[in-house]
Structures are given as C-alpha cells and as structure tokens.
Description:
mainly alpha
Amino acid sequence: MKFSILVVLAALLSVFAAQFLIEDPGYVVISFRGYLIEMSVPAMILIAAAVLAGIWIIGKMLMAPRRLGEAAGRYRAGRTGKKLTMGMIEVAEGNFARGEKLLAKAAGTSESPLFNYLQAARAAHLQGNDDRRDKWLKLAYEQTPEATNAVLLTQAEFQLDRAHYENALATLRRIEENSANHSYAAALLGRLYFRLEDWDSLGELLPRLNKHHRIKAETLDLWTIRVHKEFLRRAADAEILTAAWKAVPRKHRSEMSILDAWYKGLIRVGLHDKAEKDLAAALKAEWRGPLVRFFGLVEGPDASKQLKRAESWLAKHSEDPDLLLTAARLCLRNELWGKARSYLESAISLRPNPETYSEYGRLLNQLGETDAAADAYRDGLSMVTENTLPAIPHLVPDPP
C-alpha cells in the first residue's frame, strides 16, 4: 500500500517537473581537478536516480543471505515448535513412544533443546525405559550446562518415583553442593528421608522446610509429629527423654502419638512419679481415654493412693471402660482380686476388647480358674482374628 502511494506521488512529481524542464531544461557544469563535465538538468537527474537505484540494489543483494537465513530459521522454528506441540499432545494422550520420538526430533533442530530433552526423558520414564530416559537427561545437561540443577531435579523425581532411594539421595546431595539452599531440592529430600525413615536427617531438615513453605502445612505437621515421636521413643535415659520433650513444638504437645511416646518413655526410664503427676494434671484439664489407660500402667510410689484417685474419678465416669480397666489394674497392684474382677467384668460388658480380656485372663489364672482364664484369652484372641479359633483338641498318642 505504501509503495503504491509512493509510485503515484513520484509520477505526479515527474509530470510536474517535466513541464518546467521542457520549457527550460537547464544546464549543469561540474569542474573537478581539471576535468569539465557538462550536462542538462534532466540528464543529471537520471544519472543521480540510476546511482541511487544501484546503491539500493547492491544493499538488497548484500542483505539477501541474512534475510534468507532468517526466513529459513523462522521456518525451522515453526516446524520445531509444531513437533514440540504434537509431541506434548501425544504424551498427554498416553502415546508415550510417539510423543518421545517427536520431542527428540524437535530437539535436534531447536535452538534451546533443554525442554524437549526433559520431556522426552519423561516420556521414556513413563514407558519404563530408564536407560533411554537417562540418555535424554545426559543430552539435556550437555546441551545446556547452566541448567544442571533443573536436570538433576528432574532425575531425582524420576528416581523417587522408581523407589531408587540411594540414587535419589546421591542426586539431591549433588544439588545441595551446587546450591546450598535450594528450596525444592530440600522438599524432595524431606520426602526421601520420610520414606527412608531417617528421622535424624529429617529432623535437621525441618527448620529449612518450615522456612521455605514448599511443603503443605499438613504434611509438615505429620513429619514433625513423627520425628519427635521417634526421638521420644528412642530416648535411652531421663535426661535425653526430657530434652526430647522440650524440643517438641508446643502446638504438637497435645497430639496423642506424642503423648503416647512421652508417657511410655517416662515409664520406661523409671520416672513413674512424674508420669503419675503429669497424667493427673492432663486428665483434669481434658478427659481422654488413652491417658486414662496410661494412668493404670504407671507404678506410682503409693499404689493405694493411686487407686483412691482413680476410684474418685468413677463418681463422674462410672461407665467409662477405660477408667474401669485402669481401676482394675490398680486393684491388681494392691492385690484386691475381687474388686479387680468386678471392674474387669464391668469393663468387658461395656466395651469388650483384647486388652481387657488379657487382664481378665491373668486374674483368673491368679485365682486358679484356668478353664475360665483360657476362655477369656480365647475371647480376646478372637477379636483380633477374622474367625473365632476353636479350642485346641487334646493330642492322641500314636498307637505302638
């Protein structure tokens, strides 16, 4: 459009100039270093136009190779982009082999083949071909060395997916060496440590994970609770146990799995007096069945006083099977067999379970009622098996 307008304007100007030149064509003289050039104005204009046209044509000829190269590049880029798009579509539709082939072809003509190789590696991974997957990852690294972390992270994800935990750990540690505070690598390390049950390493990593916010809060809470539970469970003495309890975040101290490990730890290291006092205070604040059962397992310094406290709670919780079981256990410690039997039978009538049946069987054995004890053990065992187990028949001796 612009060119057409310019042609029309040039024609109009030519017609207008021709009117003047016909009447008086003019005269031009050029003197240069002893040379004298004479010509009319129209001739000079034609020569000037010819020179300008020549310069323009030469310029176009010089620019032509670059223009052709740019056009060819655009054409190749268009074809490469089309292959990449088709490859991604094939992979998304589950045609992994065809998608991998298209992505690999597109990588050969792409100016930045990193994405192609990473996606081809994913397609090979989804086909279960780890060797070809690793080949594409290697090419991605060789073509784009500055994307080392991106390639290693992709490799670590694949290794985690295959449960190749040792290889994944080595890969993620390489990233840690390259980038000491890489948030996504830390998140993958957290998942790996949790799967490996490496609680010490996960415990050291938790502050970084809380800082980066790359893991869901629910998952972080789960990991935190499990780590501190394991620290409490493994505590070998009172000092280590107390330090482990102080390290538990305050918001998680009411979690039952944490409390379970804490009170079991107190009993294990012999701090029964502290366990009794802490449990009494906790139950005063909130009545919880598992804590009630723990109170019956604690061997406080005064068994009689401990039983009286449990029986005082029966005034408000007379039909609590957990409290009845606890009272029965404390009666057994005080050798009050009849009372213990009454509490256990009441607990069984309210909520029979293997734990209560086990205590009942022990008591009946103590009282010499072996057949009734066997029935109690069998009833408890039947609650943890699919079918009720029959009594074991007496063995008949082989005939001579």
